Amino acid sequence: MRAFNSFQGRSNNNYQGRGGGSHGNHQGYNSGRKNYGNNSGYHNNNNNSGGLGKNLNPVDWANFKLVPFEKNFYKEHDDIRRLSSKEVKEIRDKHRITILGGDNIPNPVESISKVGFPDYVLKSLRNNNIVSPTPIQIQGWPIALSGKDMIGKAETGSGKTLAFILPAFVHILAQPSLKHGDGPIVLVLAPTRELAEQIRQECIKFSVESKVRNTCAYGGVPKGGQIYALRQGVHILIACPGRLIDLLEQNATNLRRVTYLVLDEADKMLDMGFEMQIRKIVEQIRPDRQTLMWSATWPKEVQALARDLCKDQPVHVNVGSLTLTACRRIKQEIYLIEEHEKLGNLKSLLQRIFKENDRIIVFVETKRSADFITKALRLEGMPALCIHGDKKQEERRWVLNDFKTGKSPILIATDVASRGLDIKNVKFVINYDFPNQIEDYVHRIGRTGRAGAHGASFTFLTSDKYRLAKELVKILRESEQPIPPQLEKISFSAGNNQRRNPYYSSGRSGYNSNFSGRGGNRYY
Q1: Which sequence spans correspond to the domains of the chain?
Q2: Are strands 522-523 and 330-336 parallel, antiparallel or unpaired?
Q3: Cys-Cys crosslink for 114: which of 56, 77, 134, 366, Cβ 3.0 to 4.6 Å?
Q4: 3-state secondary structure labels for all residues of 39-73
Q5: For the chain, give me the number of helices (H) and strands (E)?
Q6: Phi, psi of 318 (to 5 degrees)
Q7: Predicted pLDDT of residue 50
């Protein structure tokens, strides 16, 4: 246990029930201020709260005289305007940018100085050591600044948050100032509180020069601080749908000033059952708004939502493969093992790969598994904590902070954390439980290999998930990973629901095992 000696002797009591006192103020919340609300109990951001939104009547915008607003701020640089169609194609091909729809699409811009950002945006980029745009920003910034509706698809860690946040700053400062009682100008909808907080942190980091104000609204915490911030006036509201509807029904804010709407991870929101809530929210927003949708996948349900929400012909931008794919910078290793072998193999794997400054995320299927595995690892002296939907927001923040700072560099997580987490220096991802759909596999391993870095993922595949072997092989092939012959054999018979393929019985020999001290394990 050489790698974990520094952790030995810590009290395991710190893991359980970390409630008690505050570990940092909630945004805009001060316990001495007037309490405008209490905990609504929406610990899970889902739509199982009966009657949520029933008191929220749609706005008949035909009866309103809408004040015109400006949304096209793009002034094309002479060098960009002079690009030939061949040069434009070469730039897009180089960065794997594909335009799937839209008219009068601005040319891509590879230089930040030629995007046309005002000085306060350029200064914020310099202050954060950003010297060149990512592929989604190369094409996304000109589109968003042009006021066009946009649908974006890019791999995790691609810089998509800045692709919509920086144009939002420009949009906000071109509008009339907020008055007392006004709601936000920009609304960003996100599926989870982790993603909402992450977007907010990017807003804070890059709004120092512009003085743009923002806040978050999500369940699992008291509403008082959120209501206070909204009534003080914010330019940007980042919200989960359930809590936002709750606040709208209480008249804590309104969306009449919203002219820039962002749906981040739209496919995830639909997976979580938010479609009706999204539609109720959008009914409160003027129809001539600018809409930007971001989705990792493009199923029919997301396409239908895009058709309804994007009033103009949206520009559809894809970065990377047109099919679901994992990042090529992530080395993927697959282990075919039995359920009862997983915990011992996890411990052996962690002993083999862990180094002092690394961050490791271990994904599990259930909250119970997360708690059990965390306790088991801590008993071995391993610095592990867990995060899942039953954790109170205070504890979730504490856990994520300890993980980010390296105090507890092993994070056990359910899929509540599989999207949206943007934590630097995540070196390894371990799929202890294989997810129920291949999209979640891609999003999980996408926690590493971000922003141009390299990473590795290790996946335990048990016989109950052999039905996904064929799709897994496709992902491995698309991301140029070696495909184990045995996994490929399983993929041919995927869907047979057989409990165990006799080809992989523990009596067979000749397989290489990198797990120390255990027999009968298959490593590929």
Answers
A1: 61-319, 324-523
A2: antiparallel
A3: 77
A4: ECCCCCCCCCCCCCCCCCCCCCHHHCCCCCCCCCC
A5: 17, 15
A6: -120, 130
A7: 52
Query: Domain 324-523 in CATH: superfamily?
Result: P-loop containing nucleotide triphosphate hydrolases (3.40.50.300)
Res 416: pLDDT: 66
Cα–Cα distance, 471 to 392 (Å, whole number): 35
Overall average pLDDT of the 492-501 stretch: 52
What letter represents residue 350's amino acid? L
Please count the other Cβ atoms lying within 10 Å of the Cβ belonging to residue 33.
Answer: 11
Q: How many CB atoms lie within 10 A of CB 95?
A: 18
Q: Look at residue 419 in the predicted model and tell me its pLDDT.
A: 56
pLDDT in tens, 214-232: 999 999 899 999 999 999 9
- Are both 61-319 and 324-523 of the same fold? yes
For the beta sheet containing 150-153, the strands, ordered from the edge strand earlier in sequence to the opposite edge, are: 97-101, 315-319, 150-153, 290-294, 260-263, 186-189, 236-239, 214-217
Confidence check: pLDDT of 520 > 70: no
Could you list the beta-strand ranges (E) of 254-296.
Answer: 260-263, 290-294
Q: Computed from CA positions of residues 35, 36, 38, 44, in that sequence, does the dihedral angle turn out positive or negative?
A: negative
Distance in angstroms (rounded) separating the CA atoms of residues 426 and 157? 12
Q: What share of the chain is helix, strand, coil (3-state, %, to 5)?
A: 40, 15, 50
Q: Give the CATH H-level superfamily of domain 61-319.
A: P-loop containing nucleotide triphosphate hydrolases (3.40.50.300)
214-217 and 186-189 strand pairing: unpaired
* pLDDT at residue 509 in the model: 30
Determine the average pLDDT of the residues in 84-110: 94
Q: CA–CA separation, 205 vs 209, rounded Å?
A: 10
- Nearest-angstrom CA–CA distance, 277 and 339: 38
The DSSP symbol for 222 reads B
Question: What's residue 201's pLDDT?
Answer: 94
Nearest to 203 by CA among 318, 259, 121: 121
Q: What is the mean pLDDT of the chain?
A: 83
pLDDT band at residue 53, thresholds of 50, 70 and 90? Answer: confident
Measured in whole angstroms, the distance separating CA 158 from the mean position of its chain's CA atoms is: 11
**What's the pTM?**
0.67
Dihedral pair phi/psi, residue 484, rounded to 5°: -60, 135
Widest Cα–Cα separation across the chain: 77
CA-closest candidate to residue 185, choices 164, 161, 214, 142: 214
Cβ(123)–Cβ(157) under 8 Å?
A: no
Instruction: Give the amino acid at 311.
Output: K
pLDDT in tens, 386-436: 998 788 878 888 998 899 899 999 999 987 655 556 677 889 999 999 998
Per-residue pLDDT, 137 = 97
Structure-block tokens of residue 417? 């954390």
